[in-house]
Amino acid sequence: MLELKDLRMVTLCENTTTNPFTLAEWGLSIHIEAGKERILYDTGAGSKGIILHNADVLGVDLTAINEIVLSHGHQDHTGGLKDVLMRTKYLGKNRKVDILCHPQALSEVYVRSPPSTEYWYFGFSHVPSELERFGAVFKTKRDAVWLNDDVVISGEIPMTNDFETVGEVFGIKTSEGIIKDTEMMDEKSLYIKTEKGLVVVLGCAHRGTINTIHDAQQTTGIEDVYMVIGGTHLANVPEYRMTSTIDELKRLKIKRLGVSHCTGQKESARLAVEFGSDIFFFNNVSTVVSHV
Question: For tag attachment on the chain, is the N or C end more exposed, with fewer CB atoms within 10 Å?
Fold first, then answer.
């Protein structure tokens, strides 16, 4: 299993930042060094080259990444993909980069803002064939993908509890038009096996933070969960879901909880109180998780 000293994560894009030289945007991107792997997990929203700016400020060499993992197809997680690929191509000696995602991540998806019933486009904001010009090699798969013995990209995450749902605001385009999408099957998380337990990296956890953690345990065969980091999609959830999530995280005895992006400010504050500073941290732009 991977030793924690060989794991380093730097958050490049997120809603907030604590570094005055970096920029924030609504979205998420985390650069992960796991042993010899160099993984870019999501690419942020792509606002005015923010991911490139922040990578430079934080000393992250994007030309050295082995693969890009897209947690799902929403614009705030895929918008910076072209910027990253242009850098890997022109500064990385025309390197090709694998883009790993669920097939549905490249489809047309929509969202609405209640009480409005009108959907607006919120899906993949690039033309895949154009990105291939910049070295992208799309590898789409519904099942789990092991990058090595210690790092795995999740398959389709089962929904097995009675309190987590995708929600009512998402839509997907079909031959019959735009219909409600209560499945969000393209959600993919990243699981890392370490000597202290699992590290679970979340994009938005649309299919549920707890469902995702349980899938990580099932996929890897490891029960102990050391860290959960990323977007938990707890903003404005019902009280039953919030308390059930907190109860299960406590039962799992996680050692570190770093939340980002779609967690919600009130919900983040509540988690901070529930878990304390020894466990909880805000995973903002410029946050570095390292155990060296």
Answer: C
State the pLDDT at residue 292: 63
Rounded Cα gap, residues 164 and 211, in angstroms: 8
Cα separation, 165 vs 106, in Å, equals: 22
Give me the domains of the chain, ranges plus CATH numbers: 4-290 (3.60.15.10)
Contact predicate 29/40, CB 8 Å: yes
- Both tokens of residue 124? 């993949």
Helix (H, G, I), strand (E, B) or coil at 32: strand
How many whole angstroms separate alpha carbon 160 and alpha carbon 162?
A: 7
| CA 235/CA 232 separation, integer angstroms | 8
Phi and psi at residue 190, to the nearest 5°: -120, 130
pTM for this prediction: 0.97
Q: How far apart are CA 281 and CA 29, in angstroms?
A: 17
In which residue ranges of the chain is pLDDT below 70? 292
d(CA 52, CA 32): 16
Q: Which helix (H) or strand (E) holds 76?
A: helix 75-78
The two beta strands, 67-69 and 37-41, are parallel
SS3 for 126? coil
Contact 227, 9 (CB under 8 A): no
Cα(139)–Cα(160) distance, rounded to whole angstroms? 28
CA distances from 63 to 1, 88, 203 (A): 26, 5, 22
What does the pLDDT look like over 148-171, one tens digit per residue? 999 999 999 999 999 999 999 999
Contact 183, 155 (CB under 8 A): no
